[in-house]
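Need tokens for this chain, all 71 residues.
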Amino acid sequence: MNIDRYAPGESVRVRYPGDPHYNETGTVDHTYADCGDMMHVVAFTDRTRATYYADELRGLHTKPQPTQGNT
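Here are the structure tokens for all 71 residues:
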């Protein structure tokens, strides 16, 4: 099973309607796996952080990359 992810340091935009950071730009601080899902901790300019799935984000410069070796 491939899991899409954004790498730490990448700029992303939140595309999850209803989220307090909807349509804001942030930077991926780090990622981690949670029960098979790749989670992204995103840092914003107001010094807050929030956690998202890859499909709740849109990369500003790249597309999500498949994570290797997960089955």
